[in-house]
Amino acid sequence: MRRLLLKQNSPLPGFGLTLGFTTLYLSLIVLIPLSALFFKTSTMTWERFVEVAITSPRVIASYKLTFGASFIGACINAFFGFIVAWALARYVFPFKRIVDALVDLPFAMPTAVSGIALTAIYSKDGWVGRWLYRMGIESAFSPLGITIALTFIGLPFVVRTLQPAIEDLDAELEEAASSLGANRWQIFRRVILPTLVPPLLTGFALSFARALGEYGSVVFISGNKPFSTEISSLLIIMKLEEYDYAGATGIAVVMLLASFLMLLTVNILQWWAGRGYREAH
Amino acid sequence: MAAAVSLKYSSKQQGSMRDPRWVRITVLTLAIAFLGLFIALPLIAVFVEAFRRGVSAYFASFENSDVWAAIKLTLIVAAISVPLNTLFGIAAGWCIARFNFRGKNFLTSLIDLPFAVSPVISGLIFVLLFGAQGWFGPYFMRAHWYPMLDWHGFAESWWPLDYQWFRYKPQIIFAVPGIVIATLFITFPFVARELIPLMQEQGSDEEQAALMLGASGWTTFRRITLPKIRWALLYGVILCNARAMGEFGAVSVVSGHIRGRTNTVPLHVEILYNEYNFVAAFAVASLLAMLGIVTLVIKSVIEWKVARNDGD
Question: What ipTM was estimated for this complex?
Answer without folding.
Answer: 0.91
